[in-house]
Amino acid sequence: MESGDIAPVPTAAWWQAAVIYQVYPQSFADSNADGIGDLPGITSRLGHLATLGVDAVWLSPFYRSPMRDGGYDVADYRDVDPMFGTLADFDALLAEAHRLGLRVIVDIVPNHTSSEHRWFVEALAAPSGSAARDRYIFRQGSGPDGDEPPNDWQSVFGGLAWTRVADGEWYLHLFDSSQPDLDWLNREVHAEFESTLRFWLDRGVDGFRVDVAHGLIKADGLPDVGHTNQGGIIGRDPLPYFDQDGVHEIYREWRKIIDSYPGERIAVAEAWTSTVERAARYVAPDELHQAFNFEYLFTPWSATDLRASIDGSIAACGAIGAPPTWVLSNHDVQRHTTRYGALGAAGLRRARAATLLTMALPGSCYLYQGEELGLPEVTDLPPDARRDPQWFRTNGAEPGRDGCRVPMPWSGTTPPFDFSPGESAAPWLPVPASWASMTAERQAANPGSTLSLYRTALRIRKEHPALGYGPPLRWLDTPTGVLAFVREPERDTAAGGAPLTCVVNLTEAPVSLRDVLERADLGPPLLASDRLSGDQLPPDTAAWW
Ligand code: NOJ
Ligand code: CA
Predict the structure, then answer these.
(1) pLDDT tens across 380-439, in order?
(2) What's the number of CA atoms in the CB half-sphere (13 Å) around residue 407?
(3) Which end of the chain is more exposed for a tag (fewer CB within 10 A), N or C?
(4) Is the dihedral of CA 171, 172, 176, 179 positive or negative?
(5) If phi over 0 gives left and psi between -120 and 50 gives alpha, with beta otherwise, what is residue 272?
């Protein structure tokens, strides 16, 4: 470039501002009437996602699996479970998604395999000290006869993290006993996963969601934690089996592979860490592209807490040059409609307001299937319907995660609301009759519905030059319990240089917008999560100007 030329405005990579929609394959759409969602079902409903206006779909696992942990127990990383279809069905899904302009991200589960994986079957048949056992973490027990576990580690799902095999050795499983942990100090494990990444990249996927990205390396010598109650799936305490520095070397290897493919393919880390700063290490420029922001997900519905969480996330990501991400729900946590409403009936109002807040923040957003319908957690599933190993391993003390995995209500007036076609088997989890008013079909016809709110919000987010990744966020002075910020477009674009202002009222009383924004000339908002009366923003409501 000649000196004096104007530097071109760097176009942000697609993922830096992307809205990525998580599909839980068992519960999205069933094509063959067995009551279980599958890949052709997803393909048939991709139009819903294109109309919604998301940029990409992340598919939770659909690989060969005994389904002891919803498919996060993989028996073959390079094949589709017959329950979900075939590799040809996957190729068809990918082609249709790309035709609709949707990218596709698949899950990769490197911390553990299923106990039905060929490697673990070999390990059990092989003697202590063999190469087959070295792919996993087998150890002698403690105590005089070795009949105590090697250390005090607990399974995230409850109970011991060790199970003893016939010849007396123990193997480590941070999750269910059917999910033995791999030994990432073994180069063969690296090579195997590198081939698996290439297998899916060669098929054309746009990226990976890395399961338990923080778990692959364990502290040297597998030291005791020293106490029980070690945290569970959403634990954030420092532990010798999570967030060890050695994991980063693995992601530097993976990044080279991903970058060697054309198109901007990405990887997003599921990494539970003790601080947002430690989470940001996973998104260093030579590691993964994104990490879920669980800190934000668990922030209570409080203006002070949310503002601190937003500032902390932006600062931690900014320090490492990565765009922040935002998420409110996924297949492991109570749906946010219910989470926010735990103290009263305000859940859906808060969830809708939280959506406008979240979509106005700089960076990329992850949505979980059904949140665009405002679905609540199903809290009254009968015990015999439950499938989550967390429920079984805690003898029902933890209800587990089935309540956020209930099949999607598409249309019609009776359960399962066209989740399955025609005369079909009962859905794998019962769908509440009360969801008749929440189907996608009903909501599409109603401009005031949550689905319509999501569609409009995503359209504005795409079109508005102040939204997305780049433009900074500037907080306005507000009364206690009210959040207001402005996003300024970085420079005038063809679309116009108007800033976007987002205001959220988290108090129990209406607030006057003229007072908050100190503007007399306030027109109607671009979008609001509920109706305004005059210049009054009702409680638990957000709006964009
Ligand atoms: C995190 C996944 O999101 C969760 O569903 C699964 O149970 C664990 N990892 C174990 O793979
Ligand atoms: Ca099916």
Answers:
(1) 999 999 999 999 999 999 899 999 999 999 999 999 999 999 999 999 999 999 999 999
(2) 30
(3) N
(4) negative
(5) beta
- Which residue spans of the chain are classified as CATH 2.60.40? 472-544
- Catalytic residue flag (residue 169): no
Task: Give the pair of three-digit tokens for residue 105.
Answer: 């991200």
Which is the catalytic residue, given 270, 295, 332, 402? 270
CATH number of 3-110+187-455: 3.20.20.80
Ligand number nearest CA of 212 is 1
Q: Is the pLDDT of residue 10 over 60?
A: no
**CATH class, 112-181 region:** alpha beta
Give distance in angstroms: CA of 57 to centre of ligand 1. Answer: 18
Based on the residue annotation, tell me whether 270 is a catalytic residue of this protein: yes
Mutate to test the pocket of ligand 1, among 24, 69, 172, 398 (most ligand atoms within 8 A of CB): 69
pLDDT digits (tens, 9 = 90+) for 41-76: 999 999 999 999 999 999 999 999 999 999 999 999
Round the average pLDDT of the chain to a whole number and report it: 94
Token pair belonging to 80: 């589709």
Angle (CA) 306-300-447 rounded to 5° is: 80
Q: Is the minimum distance from the CB of 109 to ligand 1 under 6 angstroms? A: yes
Q: Which of 55, 181, 211, 402 is catalytic?
A: 211
Count Cβ atoms within 10 A of the Cβ of residue 524 and give its class: 0-12 exposed, 13-18 middle, 19 or more buried.
exposed
Q: pLDDT at residue 115 above 50? A: yes
